[in-house]
Amino acid sequence: MNKLLLRVAAKPVLFGLCMLPFLWVTYGAFTSQLGANPAEYLVRATGDWTLRCLCLVLAVTPLRTLLKLPALARFRRMIGLFVYFYVVLHLLAYAWFDMSFELSEIAKDIVKRPFILMGFAGFVCLTPLAATSFNRMIRWMGGARWQSLHRLVYVIAGLGLLHFFWMRAGKNNFTEVLAYVALISALMGWRIVKTLNSHRLINQ
Ligand code: HEM
After folding, report:
1. Whole-angstrom Cα distance, residue 17 to residue 13?
2. Residue 69: which residues within 8 A CB-CB, separation 6 or more?
């Protein structure tokens, strides 16, 4: 399996898979298959895929360790950039369909609605992570500084969950949110246990 993941074709295949949601909603938009409210569908679908790609990024290290597949690490940057790709689409869909690109109205909305503020904070935190995803930036920053910056991904996961939770609080519909909370808690819990174990080993 690890050999398969090291194949040259593995990355283009992953790229194609990550593009599928975008291609589907674009096709759905042009063929009027996005239901009674296509604008809402597009805002929500791009939000969903932002969060799903974020869960995938957080799952790379646990899966790599538990399944003994070191090659999985080579996909983390691409999946991380797809988090940013979908959040930019999400923000654009919101700005276009919900707010008609009225910047002053968007600014007012960010202040007025806490769930939008959390989403916006998530977007602001994601931007430097996307900007520093390239080898040149990693070399320029140095490994240690780069790693501490990229720990922001844990804050972004929390902001994304809060954003989704507060958005659904208005509709009293928490099922999907709780599934994401459980998954991200498990991925974070695995990291905490691993860190505690490694500290215990060091102190023995
Ligand atoms: C500038 C940043 C953001 C803005 C303005 C924004 C705005 C919105 C809006 C307007 C909705 C739909 C509300 C509704 O239909 O009632 C939404 C839903 C959502 N957003 Fe965001 N968002 C932002 C960032 C994010 C980020 C960073 C994430 C993930 C980490 C995210 C994930 C979601 C999810 C999962 C939904 C729910 C979709 C569903 O109902 O299935 N959003 N967002």
Report:
1. 6
2. 1, 2, 5, 63
> Ligand 1 center to residue 29 CA distance, Å?
19
Q: How many domains does the chain have?
A: 1
Q: Which protein residue's CA is at the shortest distance from atom 2 of ligand 1?
A: 120
Residues with Cβ within 8 Å of 183's Cβ and at least 6 positions away in sequence, in order, are 55
**Domain assignment of residue 40, given as a range:** 2-203
How far apart are alpha carbons 102 and 92 in whole angstroms?
12
Query: What would the two tokens of residue 202 be?
Result: 């060091």
Q: Which of these, 117, 152, 156, lies nearest to 132 by C-alpha position?
A: 152
pTM listed for this prediction: 0.93
Secondary structure element (H or E) that encloses residue 192, with its range: helix 175-203
Half-sphere exposure of 46 (CA within 13 A, CB side): 24
pLDDT tens string 12-68: 999 999 999 999 999 999 999 999 999 999 999 999 999 999 999 999 999 999 999
Within 10 angstroms of residue 99's Cβ, the number of other Cβ atoms is 15
Q: Where are the beta strands (DSSP E) in the chain?
A: none
Q: Which of 39-48, 71-80, 167-176 has the lowest mean pLDDT?
A: 167-176
Task: Return the residue whose CA atom lies nearest to atom 31 of ligand 1.
Answer: 47
Phi-psi region at 134: left, alpha or beta (left = phi > 0; alpha = psi -120 to 50): beta
